[in-house]
């Protein structure tokens, strides 16, 4: 819905239809209420880029907005299991579904595991039916969601992500509480300086200077590294941990 409205310039108001028939997009901790959640044009207009909204149900209903590329949304619409058939030329996600099935495995779940700065990370969990052993494969979140859709697998979200990034929505069309994290980029590098890349660069320069016995330069790089780490300490303390949301 948001994707179509965005392409039409947000010219019409719409209704967010919450449905039990879309299990991969409902991350549930308890049974949620069934009905229509009115999402106003003003809310959707805040997201200027193609966005996937995951509906999370836990002591209320939440939306987790994930900004992706056009291709991810278009593919997501195409792989809907509700279509009742797979096209003659299946895409890569139907191929993954068929391959996993032929190997005697199944996609048991996908999980959004963490967010580092403006980038989310996800994993696929494969295993044999009835077997507790699983194979964990790292994935881009948009690919993981498309695989879950094609395989009708559940999606789980890190508890920290839900607490920090999800938006609580209310019946009546207005979010009960919104948080100012609307610019989280799903699969692309964060805009602006990257503290991790900058730290690696400083460490590399310091080690090189030390190896070449340029000790004054090495001390300079060491001091810059220390300054960077001190300035980034608050950010590092707030990083998400891989605790799953059950």
Automatic annotation (TrEMBL):
GO biological process, one term: protein ubiquitination
Cellular compartments per GO CC: nucleus; VCB complex
InterPro entries assigned: BFN_sf, Bi_nuclease_dom, UVR_dom
BFN domain ranges (all copies): 31-169
Pfam family, one: BFN_dom
MF GO annotations: nuclease activity
Tagged with keyword Nuclease: yes
Keywords: Hydrolase, Nuclease
PANTHER family referenced in this protein's UniProt entry, alphabetically: VON HIPPEL-LINDAU DISEASE TUMOR SUPPRESSOR, VON HIPPEL-LINDAU PROTEIN
Family: Belongs to the bifunctional nuclease family.
Biological role: Bifunctional nuclease with both RNase and DNase activities. Involved in basal defense response. Participates in abscisic acid-derived callose deposition following infection by a necrotrophic pathogen.
Protein name, UniProt field: BFN domain-containing protein
Organism of origin: Brassica cretica
Lineage: Eukaryota, Viridiplantae, Streptophyta, Embryophyta, Tracheophyta
